Amino acid sequence: MAKIVGSITSTHVPALGRAIAQNLQEDPYWKPFFDGFPPVREWLREVKPDVAVVFYNDHGLNFFLDKLPTFALGAAEQYVNADEGWGIPTLPPFRGDPALSWHLINALIEKEFDLTTCQEMLVDHAFTLPLKLLWPDDQICPVRTVPVCINTVQFPLPSAARCFKLGEAVGKAIESWDEDQRVVIIGTGGLSHQLDGTRAGFTNKAFDLKFMESLVSDPKWATQYSIEDLVELTGTQGVELLMWLAARAALPGKVRKVHANYHIPISNTAAGLMVLENL
Amino acid sequence: MTDSKRSREIPGTTLFDSVQARKGYALNKMCFSFNSADNRAEFLRDEDAYCARYGLNETQSAAIRKRNVLDLLAAGGNVYYLAKFAGIFGLDVQDIGAQQTGMSKDAFKARLVAAGN
How many CB pairs under 8 A join A and B? Predict the structure, then answer.
């Protein structure tokens, strides 16, 4: 049976693409962010995942407002990165795992999660850059991937409680997969930030730190908040913490914190990074 | 007909809800097209013709001409798509943030740093 080895949750921002391409890892602005990653890579070398299930949000590369799914799950042989309009270098395609994808689709729809299924799916910086940060030296990402995209573009967004339940169902489905495979759960987005409006530049360190701590001690803590509460507390894009919640919920039972990092700012964003594994 | 449910007020923030999504559809569709380098070049060749082809109204076209992010948001723009428009001019989210808050980019960046202390 498949085994979930743990979760990695990380911020994503487009500017990271340029920072990676220009080798700015030691640049004083970027260093506090990049320095968070070596312990995560060390952990990955120990737990040796075969496949990654990645919760992320599309920013208008694959999906437009003409057809915008609340939850979409990739079921492709590969996922292609493409021009997002601001000139960051594209990364080579990521290998899919259609067998796991269809196992998840069947299990989740059985559990009343009415997914959109995608046999072709472009993946944007929210998917590609965190994977590149985890495996920087590999030309091609060494694990197979299953993207799970959650709408954070157009309201109404799915609630925090609903995203938590989605994550729980994904975790249970993975554990029922009859393959001897090791699966890492990844969630990308957040933490607090706001790009738009006169409140642009808003961050909330106290909330972010409480949220990160809650994922270990009280994982449903953030589900008490409505989406609008979360926007008020974390910013219009801070609501991407939904990806962290879904990733955490996919881990069965109690967890321990393997590693965490938190730094303000990269770009406009309070950057968080966290690795959890089951006790 | 009006939408039965508008989002609640959050200071300095416009949620991209059904009202905005309907109002801004043409504008956002144009900005979505800027994923393509060919489309970005074509926009730069004749901005007004490009806006007209996507059916922008006068308020939206004027906001595009002024490169004014708050006006674009008010006209129904979504920041994820507007970021692609800004990208044509090499502007990043800190440039956009500085413009919306009426600060210099350096002051905006300094405020972000201060929030981490």
Answer: 136
Residue among B17, B73, B83 minimizing CB distance to A197:
B73
- Read off φ and ψ for residue B72, nearest 5 degrees: -65, -40
Q: Is A237 within 8 Å of B16 (Cβ atoms)?
A: no
Please give the ipTM for the structure prediction: 0.95
Q: What is the DSSP string of B19-53?
A: HHHHHTHHHHHHHHHTTSHHHHHHHHH-HHHHHHH
Most A-contacting residue of B23, B31, B78, B79 (CB-CB within 10 A), to test interface? B79
Q: How many domains does chain A have?
A: 1
CATH code: domain of residue B77: 1.10.700.10
Surface of A (248-267) touching B: CB under 8 A: 263-265, 267
**What integer pLDDT is reported at residue B3 of this predicted model?**
54
Give me the percent of chain A exceeding a pLDDT of 70: 100
Instruction: Give residue for tokens 């428009």.
Output: B85
Run of H or E residues at A257:
strand A255-266
- Which residue range forms the structural domain that includes residue B58? 18-89
Residue A25: pLDDT over 60: yes
Contacts of A25 (CB under 8 A, 6+ apart): A19, A31, A34
Residue B76 lies in a domain: yes
Residue B107 counted as domain residue: no
The answer to whether residue B48 is domain-embedded is yes
CA distance A52 to A8: 10
